[in-house]
Amino acid sequence: MLFQGSYEPLPCPAGTYSNITGAVDTSECTICDPGYYCSSVAGGAPTGPCAAGLLL
After folding, report:
1. Per residue in 18-40, is it b (16+ CB within 10 Å) or e — as a string?
2. Got the DSSP string for the chain?
3. Which Gene3D superfamilies does its entry note (predicted)?
4. Which of 7, 14, 28, 48 sits 20 to 30 Å CA-CA off 54?
């Protein structure tokens, strides 16, 4: 993801991800899917499933 005014790609904020190539704004980040978590370096998909019994 490349944010406006930035020359280098930056990850979406924690709890979000983006699978849009060439995204330029955090509005193009998607909230992580239910039952999964997204780290700050999730990239184009959720990082992984939540552990059983864990509520984020």
Report:
1. beeeebeeeebbbebeeeebbee
2. ---TT-SS--PPPTTEE---TT--SGGG-EEPPTTEE--TT-TTS-SEEPPTT---
3. Tumor Necrosis Factor Receptor, subunit A, domain 2
4. 28
The answer to whether residue 50 is domain-embedded is no
pTM of the model: 0.66
User: Encoding tokens for residue 6?
Assistant: 């930035």
CB atoms within 10 A of CB 2: 14
Residue 21, token pair as written in the block: 């190539």
pLDDT, averaged across the chain: 78
Residue 17 inside a domain? The answer is yes
